[in-house]
Structure formats: structure tokens, C-alpha cells
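User: Just a sanity check before I run the rest of the batch. Below are the C-alpha cells for the first item. I only need the designed sequence back.
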């Protein structure tokens, strides 16, 4: 893909970069997205699976759905898009990776300065006493486990519809969006709030906003550049345009 001169100049001079990723960046690893023809919401109903009331109504069903997705994620690997962002973090002075994904693939690839807005599927917690559960036993493949401390139901540590995002995570994300000079919005339909507000926060502060997606989205008309294609193909090319900055290890 050829990049415009304006984009190249912005990449070369960017001092502070904020990246927002969504399910599309993991699609090339084999993790299904949520929306669109092949998306999870075509087969499963979010109102039956991705909200707290559904969990209380039928904890085992919701738990089993997450156990199935956890297993799928364990079977896949980060892709070229995830690794390109690790390289980008090495090149620029200030870098924050904000992800809506719960799949842990950015961390497995080696990203460090990360904010997980919607939690992490690898973690669970007790809805009564809040105890974190990192290790799950084999019985928990089909039945929602009970807390060893208080007997409460254990749920996945992900953010469902109608739930608040972790306060500290969102405030770090907003701060990064407010202070960056380049904002990259990658593989997200940009329809779920408040994450979808971040590129607009960046715009309002004068940042250059670049979108990478297979299709046009809600953001495309506003983005300074909208690069259409697969993140795993575009990102390595884009990252190679950034020069190594002083203070960072090449
Ligand atoms: C590629 C590619 C490739 C593919 N390369 N690209 C009305 C108006 C405004 C807001 C609301 C409203 N009604 C309700 C709300 C609030 C609601 C919301 O935003 N709803 C909208 C959908 C309407 N938001 C919330 O409820 C949030 N909380 C909140 O607002 O709290 C305040 C509050 C409290 C109490 C009452 C009311 C408000 C919480 C949102 C939590 C979202 N949770 C989920 C599930 C997480 C757990 C799990 O994984 O199961 O998070 S939903 C799902 O969507 C998941 C994702 O993180 C999130 C975003 O999806 P994403 O990543 O964008 O994926 P897709 O599939 O949509 O898009 C993939 C993209 O990739 C596509 O564009 C492809 O083209 C592209 N692509 N392959 C590049 N190779
Ligand atoms: Zn408990």
C-alpha cells in the first residue's frame, strides 16, 4: 500500500501515539469479530450472553460461552498486526495501546504500555466478595464455578453492556487520547461507547487520526486517513515509516 506524503510526514514526526484496537486486529489470528457477516453476534445474541442479567438468569450458559471462547483463544497466536504494534512501542517516545479486546493477544505478542478497556477473558472474579480468580479448574469448562472464599458465583472479568468500564483504565485511555499527536484506530467498528469516543477526543485536541479497517466505519468520514485493508498487512508497512526516537531502544 502506498501512503500519502501527509501521512508519511505525520508518522515520521509523531512524538506521542495512542492506538485503539478492536476485534479486527485479532481476526487474522482466527478470533471471530462481533459484528458483520462472520461475527459472533450473527450466531449468538448479546442480550442472552453479554450482560449481567443474562448471567444471573443462566450462569452456566454464559460461562460455557466464555469457556468456549477462552479455549479458542488459547489455540491461536498473535499475528503480524499485534507484533507491528510491539515494534511501534519501541520506536516512539510516548505510546499507549488501548484495546477493547479481551483476548490477551497484545500482551502475548509483547506489548507493554497497554490499557484493557473491556477486561480480560483470562481473569474471573466473584460477584459477591470480588476475589480475583486466575486459575480455573477443569470442572469450570461447563459450569460457572463458585468462589472458594464465600461460595458466590464467579464471572469472567469482562465488561458487559450496561456496565461501567474500569475507571482507571478509561481515564488512562482518555488522557492518552487527549495528549497524543497521532491516533490510530484499528479493526474496530467504532460503535461501542465510551471506547468509540476516544478518536473524537483526539480530534478535538488536534491529533492526526488514522483508521485501519477492512471496511468503512462510523469514523471513516471524520478520520484524516482511512486505510482500507487487513491490519496484519498494513500495520507492518506503516510502522516501518516511523523513525527510532531518542531515548527508545531500537
Ligand atoms: C478488520 C479485520 C482485519 C475485520 N483488519 N480490520 C445508545 C447510544 C450510545 C450508547 C449506548 C446506547 N445504548 C447503550 C449504550 C451503551 C453501550 C453501547 O455503546 N452500545 C452501542 C452498541 C449502542 N455501551 C456500554 O454499555 C458500555 N458501558 C457503558 O456505556 O457504561 C455506562 C452505562 C452504565 C449503565 C447504563 C448505561 C450506560 C460497555 C460496553 C461493553 C462492551 N462489551 C463487549 C463485550 C466484551 C466481553 C466479550 O468479549 O464478550 O465488548 S461488546 C463487543 O463490542 C466487545 C468489543 O470490545 C466491543 C467493540 O467491538 P469491536 O472490537 O469494534 O468489534 P466489531 O466486531 O464490532 O468490529 C470489528 C471491526 O474489525 C469491523 O469494523 C471489521 O470491518 C474490522 N475488521 N477484520 C482490519 N483483518
Ligand atoms: Zn467470593
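Assistant: Here's the designed sequence for the first item:
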Amino acid at each position: 500500500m502506498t501512503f500519502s506524503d501527509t501521512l508519511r510526514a505525520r508518522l515520521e514526526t509523531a512524538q506521542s501515539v495512542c492506538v485503539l484496537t478492536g476485534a479486527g486486529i485479532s481476526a487474522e489470528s482466527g478470533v471471530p469479530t462481533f459484528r458483520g457477516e462472520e461475527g459472533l453476534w450473527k450466531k449468538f445474541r448479546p442480550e442472552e450472553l453479554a450482560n449481567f442479567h443474562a448471567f444471573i438468569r443462566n450462569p452456566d450458559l454464559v460461562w460455557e460461552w466464555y469457556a468456549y471462547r477462552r479455549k479458542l483463544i488459547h489455540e491461536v497466536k498473535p499475528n503480524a498486526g499485534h507484533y507491528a504494534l510491539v515494534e511501534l512501542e519501541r520506536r516512539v517516545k510516548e505510546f499507549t495501546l488501548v484495546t477493547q479486546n479481551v483476548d490477551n493477544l497484545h500482551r502475548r505478542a509483547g506489548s507493554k504500555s497497554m490499557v484493557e478497556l473491556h477486561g480480560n477473558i483470562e481473569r474471573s472474579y466473584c460477584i459477591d466478595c470480588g476475589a480475583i480468580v486466575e486459575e480455573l479448574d477443569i470442572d469450570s469448562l461447563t459450569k460457572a464455578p463458585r468462589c472458594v472464599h464465600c461460595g458466590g458465583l464467579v464471572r469472567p472479568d469482562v465488561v458487559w453492556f450496561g456496565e461501567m468500564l474500569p475507571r482507571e483504565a478509561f481515564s488512562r485511555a482518555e488522557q492518552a487520547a487527549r495528549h497524543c499527536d497521532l491516533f490510530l484506530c484499528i479493526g474496530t467498528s467504532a460503535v461501542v461507547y465510551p471506547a468509540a469516543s476516544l478518536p473524537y477526543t483526539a480530534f478535538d485536541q488536534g491529533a492526526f487520526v488514522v483508521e485501519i479497517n477492512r471496511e468503512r466505519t462510523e469514523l471513516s468520514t471524520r478520520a484524516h486517513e482511512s486505510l482500507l485493508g487487513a491490519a496484519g498487512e498494513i500495520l507492518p508497512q506503516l510502522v516501518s515509516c516511523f523513525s527510532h526516537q531518542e531515548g527508545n531502544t531500537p
